[in-house]
């Protein structure tokens, strides 16, 4: 590296000396070329080795973190979220890799800087110190700016706020559409976005200062050195040798100067990451010896005087436990919520901290957790769980676990892929798949943690008889069953009663009843809930017994309650989620099975080929020509200044020496300084201008994306995973904010720089054109070849990265199941395979970069050779100054070329983000929100009559109609109940009235206005729905009731009073400004349902639709709600989609839906006397 300026010095000496033989010139030129080539080869070989080592470090650490996640104990697991662990794998391992690649710069850079200054000293003497002083000054300036910028990371805060809000909008999109609230939320998101962009703008301006100071650094150093050198002594003359060798050295100096701060910050980040990884890898692990395994499968499972806790310091969760389980017996474990039933099973698995006692387990174990853990794989893979498939046994397992009817509904039977966390299965189905996985194992000991809670009563009975009970498939195995179903207890061999972590009673059913202890009371309280239950019985026709008891006593977390509620809705009426969509799947639809597979849909979307030109057009169009043209001029101006000051130097160097000095040096110095200064200001101007353009573009693109997404119909959100949409709002928008303008800045500045070099070489030796043109074509060819490959590799790498994280997520959540089944090694293998697969597309990417760089540098070295050889040939005609100028500039070509390609690739890779953000511009949109000049009276609808004329509706094109030819007239103030079995089309009626789905045929009139002819917001804001699942958004309670601020506080309080929430809200410290957390999780489900009721009371429209609004509420609250609705909405038309039939017995009419038709319609009393479908439903519900 340092030899090259020395050779340059010799070459310039040769040009100055007319006597020198010609061969010397050619020798120096060739030597320079060879040295440059050697430098390229060594440098890239070094980079390649570093990258390979870095990659190995990264994969090793990923494997470590993964293996650790399988052995970490529950106390440690609570301290780090799944997100944090995934972060360790994604971000921190990458930081370590960067560290390996750039670490050597930390000690190399100072040495290089030292050498440069030493050589400069040789050439210019003490005035080199002026250069050092400049270097020392530039550093603190940049450090100060970096500090200011890190303070501006506020952008992240606003970004987090915006992303959180987007997440909620996507989760609650249905509610936004029902209430016509899109505009209010649009404003909120844009508010966050503006703040975010403001912070970004400040940060970019500061950054521009630091770029300008850095890019002008070579000028500043030269200016200081030459200025001091000339001023020190009259005799100090600047000749070509001094000027251009110094310039070449200064250009070398720039590399270590720029690498040093980067290397230091990389090292700092790596240290932070190491600390985080260390903390995680050193966290406590499960003790292997807490359970002793006996190999022989005969004999008993024993816990002897055991005391267990969840963490070392925590209170014990089980005390003085002694259990002997004879082989092949069925043990039932009962007790209230939180009495330690699940902990008992965990203790047997060795998941808890053993304080004292001993646990012995015979043979292999299978475990069914309380919350089913389902992998993102096919149903069959979930059940086989790594074992090979035995056809007959597999069929028996499916039959016993009552999975056959479910497999008929799923689009591809047991080959249907299940989404993340079992996205497309109901709670009951997940639980049964989880049970089937255990049964298929043929283990010796079965630990079943309440597997029957999520399934309905008759299915539960079937599973007990066929699987768990004395006649089931597992009759010879040892079974320990945690249960709330009292009906199963008489058949158990042994019952353990747990109270507060102690076994208070144990024995058979009859023995315990005769003791008259806690167990006997337990049975009696249960019997009384049985009676109450017949009132709740829901007439869905799948005579479901869902016990109140089951609901309240779900152990441990509220999560299970959510699974359970999900299940209530599922058995009841799923508002156009799974079942209705899935029933009519025609043969040719079969291959589109993975509809809602979180990550998978994203993976399919890797575009191929180069990025379309349209994307660039779109991006630049967003900015506008008015700004782009001045930027190009600024760039040309900046490069012009740079060219002028270089040319000025060469003229100065050629200035004849008179009496040992040169004339007018002050003037020369002043012009030199002025030109350099102008260039610095121009650099600052261009960088700021481009940053501002980037902000204009990203503001517009984000706005378009947001509006496009909010204007999409419901069907779009059902088929697009929210992860994909969020990804657009986070990653892609972030890339458009920062990366695209960065890449453009780099690219433009280097392209113009290249033009400048070419002009200089051509001025010196016009013949060079003959060589530069072919080299340019070669370069263009190499580059286009590379950019296409790199783009594609980058997309492949991104696509193969997602499965790593998905797999990680799953493993962390299902660690206890994986351990219980002893499948750790298989999962570790899978994780390694996924990481390797990702590396196979990562490795070619950086090898391609090295290939490109080596090729380009050879092209660049060709330019050096050309400039040198041609100047040797034209020795007599060219001056040393011009030769120095040409050769020292051509030495920069290699660097410039590789930077152009890198920045060009960056731009291509990041413009992909524009492509992805743009994807949703062409998806189908809803009708317009408001129609211009519509003559709707303000008070419409006044009376609230609804008329359906031959109305039909379908969920997606190609599916059969969900409603077929409905004709129906509803008078004002009528109260209509709508009943029917799952999938009969009850909710479809509501979706039709709100135009969530557009009519496939026929019309709906409200007060004589055809609703298809008015704007969606005009329609949706004038009628009200209380939806099935109550959704709240994070923000104040007031915002949740009235996002547009249209009502007074008095009105809001009175609506809360009517919704029976006034006492609750007035006891809150912030009252109406009480912050609801994400999804309203700091309110109970029932309270959320009441908030939705309060919304309806506020709007007080003439038409009210209740979609199974009281499913989540206990009986008492249900009666309150019903009475409120009866009194407050007396003069409104009310449509209730009912599951609890007792709520609609006093309605004016009941409509019975069946497969999309109206099968019966009359007053409830008349329907019962007709003894039709409605009568049968009432009989099942115990109402007649």
From TrEMBL:
EC supergroup of this enzyme: translocase
Topology with regard to the membrane? Multi-pass membrane protein
Q: Which InterPro entries match?
A: AAA+_ATPase (IPR003593), ABC1_TM_dom (IPR011527), ABC1_TM_sf (IPR036640), ABC_transporter-like_ATP-bd (IPR003439), ABC_transporter-like_CS (IPR017871), ABC_transporter_C-like (IPR050173), MRP (IPR005292), P-loop_NTPase (IPR027417)
The record's annotation in CDD domains points to: ABC_6TM_MRP1_2_3_6_D1_like, ABC_6TM_MRP1_2_3_6_D2_like, ABCC_MRP_domain1, ABCC_MRP_domain2
Lineage: superkingdom: Eukaryota
* Membrane-spanning residues: 26-42, 99-121, 127-146, 205-232, 244-266, 622-649, 669-697, 754-782
The residues covered by the ABC transmembrane type-1 domain are 1-269, 631-909
Query: What are the residue boundaries of the ABC transporter domain, all occurrences included?
Result: 286-525, 946-1180
An example GO CC term for this entry is: plasma membrane
The entry's family comment says: Belongs to the ABC transporter superfamily. ABCC family. Conjugate transporter (TC 3.A.1.208) subfamily.
Recorded protein name is: ABC-type glutathione-S-conjugate transporter
Question: Which source organism?
Answer: Oryzias sinensis (Chinese medaka)
